[in-house]
Amino acid sequence: MKISVSKPNTVLLAAALRKARVVEARAIANDIFRGVKDTTPVDTGTAKRGWRLLTKSKNYEIVNNVPYIGVLDQGRSFRDGQMRGSTQAPKGMTGPTLRQLRTRKRAR
Hints:
Elements: H1 7-39, H2 46-49, E1 51-56, E2 59-64, H3 69-73, E3 76-79, E4 82-85, H4 94-107
Antiparallel strand pairs: 1-2, 3-4
């Protein structure tokens, strides 16, 4: 069997790989965004509504500027003037989301 690779074919292949990488990066960013948003505990809904998926050039950034988002992501909440363990997201949001995505990726 003879396989020949010509320069035009390698250019097309490189372009296809670049496009696939962009599509996959966007899919991963969307999965993470949906995961952290879906697992964010809700009292007033402010923290859940605070999630944003930003596109910067070819990079994606997931942000939440709610001042207490770090506390929630540590599995805690501030209720009745006291810091307490979160009953809705005791393990936070980002850790469980990333673990779930890693597990799902291994299963492919």
